[in-house]
């Protein structure tokens, strides 16, 4: 069914029926996000905000742009949830500061060496041991819920970041130049980090499931994911894209 036919089907339903139909989508996005947030953030808070995003999507969806309603609604729902988290400032300032500090350190090392910064090099630059460095990554992980969205990732799949020739409702969210640089930065990640990013964002596996796939602990997957985001931020800053 194409998007216009699907839209006609949507129009045949009442608002209450539409909300019931897409509430599972709201819940799925909420539980995916809450796994990366501090314990103080409750799924019900995100679901409530997501339902507002769903209603906005129902009002604003334009099927002529070519995207399915579920794809469009997913972006509006996630955006509403992230706005709620930002508004309530659930992430401490110290966490943001650590995340920025890590990106700066990685950028300096990679500028100097011309290759991927290694864990022990980052730890040495910070003046801490490997164990403490990994703890800093864990603490900064709560910030990562914003990272891909703040980089302009939104709800696109990693392999769909580079725009195709068909116009869509998300055109204009990112400049072509930025999208190209982001795609190149992702492609340049070390193999294990690329794999974790693909499993997490494309396949929507949780950290435990990814650990089972690649044969490491859940905490190690969290570290790899955080390291990948730090590296992306560093490389995009180096390119002047952030």
Describe this structure in words.
- This protein is mainly α and 242 residues long.
- It folds into 2 domains: 3-87, Rna Polymerase Sigma Factor, Chain: A (Orthogonal Bundle); 93-238, Butyryl-CoA Dehydrogenase, subunit A, domain 3, CATH 1.20.140.
- The chain is 69% helix and 0% strand.
- It has 12 helices and no strands.
- The protein has helices at 3-11, 15-34, 43-60, 69-87, 93-113, 119-126, 130-140, 144-150, 176-187, 191-202, 207-214, 218-238.
- The radius of gyration is 19 Å and the shape is elongated.
- The termini are far apart.
- The model is unreliable at 1-5 and 145-174 (pLDDT under 50).
Q: Count of DSSP E strands?
A: 0
Question: What is the CATH fold-level name of the largest domain?
Answer: Butyryl-CoA Dehydrogenase, subunit A, domain 3
Task: Count the DSSP helices.
Answer: 12
Q: Which H/E pattern describes the elements?
A: HHHHHHHHHHHH
Fraction of residues in β-strands: under 5%
Largest sheet: none
In the CATH hierarchy, the architecture of the largest domain is Up-down Bundle
Total number of distinct structural domains: 2
Estimate the helix proportion, in percent: 55-70%
Please state the average pLDDT score: 76
- Shape label: elongated
**Computed Rg:** 19 Å
Distance between the ends:
39 Å
Structural class estimated from helices and strands: mainly alpha
Low-confidence stretches: 1-5, 145-174
CATH class of the largest domain: Mainly Alpha
């Amino acid at each position: 069914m194409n998007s216009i036919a699907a839209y006609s089907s949507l129009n045949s339903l009442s608002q209450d029926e539409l909300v019931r139909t897409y509430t599972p989508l709201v819940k799925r996005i909420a539980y995916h996000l809450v796994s990366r947030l501090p314990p103080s953030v409750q799924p019900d808070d995100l679901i409530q905000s997501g339902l507002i995003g769903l209603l906005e999507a129902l009002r604003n969806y334009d099927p002529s742009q070519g995207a399915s309603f579920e794809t469009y609604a997913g972006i509006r729902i996630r955006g509403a949830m992230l706005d709620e988290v930002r508004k309530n400032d659930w992430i401490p300032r110290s966490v943001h500061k650590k995340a920025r500090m890590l990106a700066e350190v990685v950028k300096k090392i990679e500028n100097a060496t011309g290759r991927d910064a290694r864990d022990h090099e980052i730890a040495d630059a910070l003046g801490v041991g490997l164990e403490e460095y990994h703890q800093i990554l864990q603490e900064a992980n709560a910030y990562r819920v914003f990272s891909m969205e703040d980089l302009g990732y939104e709800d696109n799949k990693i392999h769909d970041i580079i725009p195709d020739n068909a116009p869509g409702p998300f055109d204009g969210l990112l400049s072509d130049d930025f999208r190209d640089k982001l795609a190149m930065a992702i492609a340049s990640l070390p193999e294990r980090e690329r794999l974790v990013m693909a499993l997490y964002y494309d396949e929507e596996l949780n950290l435990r499931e990814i650990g089972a796939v690649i044969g490491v602990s859940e905490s190690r997957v969290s570290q790899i994911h955080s390291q990948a985001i730090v590296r992306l931020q560093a490389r995009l800053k180096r390119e002047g894209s952030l």
